[in-house]
TrEMBL record:
Its cofactor is pyridoxal 5'-phosphate. It holds the Pfam family Aminotran_5. This is Cysteine desulfurase. The lineage of its organism: Bacteria, Bacillati, Actinomycetota, Actinomycetes, Propionibacteriales. Keywords: Pyridoxal phosphate, Transferase. It is an enzyme of class 2 (transferase).
Amino acid sequence: MAEYPAVIDVAEVDTPAGVGTSPTAGEIPYDVDHIRADFPIFERMVGDRPLVYLDSANTSQKPRSVVETIEDHYLHHNANVARAMHMLGAEATEAFEGARAKVARFVGAQRSEEIVFTKNASEALNLLAYTATRELGPGDEIVISVMEHHSNIVPWQLAAERTGATLRWFDVTSDGRLDVERAAEDGLINERTKIVSIAYVSNVLGTVNPVDAIAAQAHAYGATVIVDASQAVPQLPVDVAALGVDYLAFTGHKMLGPTGIGVLWGRYELLENLPPFLGGGEMIETVKMTGSTFAPPPHRFEAGTPPIVQAVGLGAAVDYLSELGMSAVARHEQEITGYALDVLQQIPGLAVLGPRELVSRGGAVSFTLATPAGEQIHPHDVGQLLDSRGVAVRGGHHCAKPLHDAFGIQSSTRASFYLYTTTTEIDALAEALTYTVDFFGRRR
């Protein structure tokens, strides 16, 4: 019976023609209309209007190649991984571990064993909040920021309660940047700091945070640095070695992949020293009634049947992004965001939250909207009226309530862009917002 590896070496993975080991290598000319043809959902109409999807920070749309890869796996290669000693089992394992190696290459990992598959970024961050805090106690400090998604706040609150450590945080400036000057004055990162966990890109403000500089400062005090890169990996070329961080989490469904798959990257020597997060099959070396020993990373953290086809779909998404080239994706994101900022700020009553220029800024623009009389229009009303005109945005606090509290508002409307967004869609958003202001202005 044929044997197959539990982990595939990064260098052995087949990638699309012309795609190198760097996320920016092998780029093809960027043609947004050609790209949109790969996404059948953009053929949809909302009434008599074309769908304008501006909620990609929530979840991205999926190209046909990702959907077809998932379909092919279920129809022709479906089996459990590692356990089934037959042809289908070997094929499923090769596809699953091949996806792991693709992801490793995509973010610049040194080896595929540094990639742990989870069900989402939230699970990846919770894994660290439970396993990387086992030696914390009273007097130790965990540092996050007001800018974080709830997934990078609540796990650390729970960890602080469990260990007796103190939770501290970066504040934000009025223009939506981390207040690093105040943090330095207050000695936010110091000899008591054991963990720093920071978002790379804000899901509300689009702010790109200086995680490399923060990592260098934290490491000077011997702290562990964790990055929530859920909004960064889809938009930017990410090289974990260049960032100089210890762990990095992201999710598949925001980067053209399926839901139900997340990624935790960690330096192998650190993963090797973490205890298991969940117990069950495949994360063990041996089990006796008197005790168990555990598998090395990454399988130590992947108890039970993993998200097999979701990982395979994520591998297909990585192929697609690699063909485009992440530097090209980032350039398009910058161009479309710059166009949106220019257009939106011409709408009376619209106030952009966060950076209003393109310096260190990603493709999410959140804003409030008011009538000519100065009455605020609730984001849910904005979203509903925009939806009636075919424009999909998000309204609420975007799982970042403390950030909205810092700005003194309850909620906001968010338009978020991606590699398939066009200027025509931004114009449709602006037209729908102008209509909304006029509609509520007349009603009141």
